[in-house]
Design brief:
The protein is α/β, with parallel strands linked by helices. It is built from nine helices and 17 strands. 30% of the residues lie in helices and 28% in strands. Helix 5 (204-211) crosses helix 6 (223-235) and helix 7 packs antiparallel against helix 8.
Amino acid sequence: MSARSGILAGGNWIVDKLKFVDVYPEQDALANIARQATGNGGSPFNILVDLARLGVSFPLAGIGLIGSDADGTWIAEQCRLHGVDATQLRAHDTAPTSYTDVMTVQATGRRTFFHQRGANAFLGDEHFDFESSTAKIFHLGYLLLLDRIDGPDAEFGTVAARILARAKAAGYKTSIDVVSEDSNRFAQIVLPALRHVDYCILNEFELGRTTGIPIRVKDGIDFAALQVATQRLFEAGVQEWVIVHFPEGACALGRDGHLRRQGSLCVAQSQIVSTVGAGDAFAAGVLYGLHEGIAIEAALHYGVCAAASCLRGEGTSDGVRPLKECLLLSEECGVRSIGV
């Protein structure tokens, strides 16, 4: 592993079409669009751009499918601008580039997504070349939003599990992220992959749906339930860390069974422009730390500071600042206490 360097990320490549509205309307009612913007979307796209903005010194590369259209051209240009190797980012012959209409309520930063799956639906095992890269970490996301990759595989259970097994065999550490889909498919799609995963990164909703254990209760996070649920993911095969993020902070469970807790930053509501992308910014910060071999406690701190920085921007990544600036936010804003 010492000869390997960089992060290779594959999965959803999406153009986020951001619309900031005065209210989220009831069906058949009207809301006013105050302004709009274009941003990066999808787990690999977001994380790689975030890592570039955090100022990493190691190589960044992506794998995925885009369309032969203006949105696909825009994605390729963003990769160039951020120093992301797009050699394995290929154009599909007929499908459009995937996009999401992101409706953000100005007063709260809360957002709702309307998604066009596009070319991402055609991404499969054959598109992943692990031999041509010497990256240290391979990240795959989002599970539950990749039609072919979420599909069954006779040997591995799912195509995602096959891809992750190939990455492990090629010498990578592996990481996954999951989309917060409102469905009962989580266990079917997520669990088979875990035998080939070093770092499982997900939020409390996704953890609850995967394990069937409610994590959020009336008073907030049930940490006893979170401990049991993360342990179940270890029992399903995770190799090193189960990392869970939520608005109040984050936790990580390792093989020693000790649950590490990290409070989020106390960002004032008046400073929150949008919450879109905060989860991926957290993942980028954590992966930065894991790549550099720092303690998991410090990696979680990187994550919550990157997420706090993200909250100050309109788009998925434009609020993310260099890591040193993100870390200073913990002194400026303070850190939330989530117990011991």
